[in-house]
Amino acid sequence: MTTETDPTRPDLKAQYASKVAGDIDENEADQRRVEAQIQALQEQLVSLKADRELLMSVSAALLDATTAAKATVPAQSAGMTVAKTSPRPKPAAKKKQPSVREAEDRGAALTDLILGHLSEQHEPRSTSEILRCLAEAHPKRQISDPLVRTSAERLVARGKLVRSKQGAGVYYTVSSGSSSNVK
């Protein structure tokens, strides 16, 4: 029968301290992972907002072009009268459109860059390898590992990439059906 003074029995307090220290480390690692995901999502949100602004300006330009085209149609044809309509109000003040240079600096979509890079590779690549190559090729772009991982997973969901696990690592290759579809 063991007693509480038995030297072979592990110290319960030390076990709890070890478990709590491990939980703290795991929590900190989870916080870093979530913060990286938040940063990637914030970068995607900025890009989506910029895209929306561009689309809104294109929409407004198309609306103006349609209104102008209707105005060039003859007002009276074959003796018919046309009721005057008031012009549509212009949209609220637009934010400054990105210049052509800014648009070029932003460049192609990250998914297109990833597909292009992987289509040139003969072996599967990890997100860190993809990130390193894209960062070297596009030094002005802010590309993070979580952003590359998210984009690669989107491409997997679309069937453009294939994900494979090798040990603890995840590697990506272009799927056989989409290598000719790279933009």
How does this structure look, described?
The protein has 183 residues and is mainly α. It has helices spanning 12-71, 100-106, 110-119, 127-137, 145-157, and strands spanning 161-166, 169-174. It has a two-stranded antiparallel ribbon. β1 (161-166) and β2 (169-174) form a beta hairpin. It is elongated, with a radius of gyration of 29 Å. The protein starts with 11 loop residues before the first helix and ends in a 9-residue tail after the last strand. 10% of the residues are buried.
DSSP strand (E) fraction?
5-15%
- Based on CA atoms alone, the radius of gyration comes out at 29 Å
Shape: elongated
Order of helices and strands: HHHHHEE
DSSP summary, beta strand count: 2
The whole-number mean of residue pLDDT values reads 79
Distance between the termini: 74 Å
What share of the residues lie within helices?
55-70%
Strand order, sheet with most strands? 1-2
What is the helix tally?
Answer: 5
Uncertain segments of ≥5 residues (pLDDT<50)? 97-105
Structural class: mainly alpha
Main sheet characteristics: 2 strands, antiparallel
Produce a short descriptive summary:
By secondary structure, the protein is mainly α.
Topology:
Layout: H1 12-71, H2 100-106, H3 110-119, H4 127-137, H5 145-157, E1 161-166, E2 169-174
Antiparallel strand pairs: 1-2
Helix pairs in contact: 1-5, 3-5, 4-5
Record keyword descriptors for this entry.
about 180 residues, about 55% helix, elongated
